[in-house]
Specification:
α1 packs across α4, α2 runs antiparallel to α3 and α5 packs antiparallel against α6. The chain has seven helices and two strands. The longest helix is centred in the last third of the chain and has 27 residues.
Length: about 150
């Protein structure tokens, strides 16, 4: 409960404009930044206290991007490939789900390979490490919220 209160207090002083500039400088597509801005405004009343849950989630996502810059860029590139493919007339909407899945997986793999310094190059080891890092992002958020919801 204390951890969530600390994250909420830290996020209350954050400004989305500085986050927007940081993400734009990292060449994150504006579509993703716009979605993060929508998430940024979400709040939830928990135990009589307003919790800026959207800000906390965006902060965790930004921490993830800063800790794994190449993996995050690979993920974004894979998603953009899917969007671009969906714009192809007639066949694009049919191919977009496949291209998105393959593009995101490829982007995560290549990005994690670039981010990991001591990697042995094994595709399975890199995939497991990427999944662990990505899921830890959500585990941190849910662990903090768990204390409020289980009282």
């Amino acid at each position: 409960m204390l951890e969530l209160s600390i994250m909420n207090a830290e996020s209350a002083s954050m400004d989305f404009t500085s986050i927007l500039v940081d993400l734009a400088n990292r060449n994150i597509p504006m579509e993703i930044i716009t979605r993060l801005e929508e998430l940024w405004t979400k709040t939830k009343i928990i135990a009589g206290e307003i919790v800026h849950i959207g800000r906390i989630i965006v902060e965790k996502i930004l921490t993830f991007i800063q800790d794994n810059p190449n993996m995050a860029i690979g993920l974004a590139i894979g998603g953009c490939l899917g969007v671009l493919t969906s714009m192809i007339p007639f066949i694009g909407p049919l191919l977009a789900p496949l291209v998105t899945a393959v593009g995101v997986a490829w982007g995560i793999y290549v990005g994690r390979t670039l981010d990991s310094e001591g990697s042995n190059g094994s595709p399975m080891a890199i995939a497991i490490e990427a999944a662990r890092l990505f899921l830890n992002l959500f585990i941190d958020i849910f662990d903090a919220l768990r204390d409020y919801w289980t009282r």
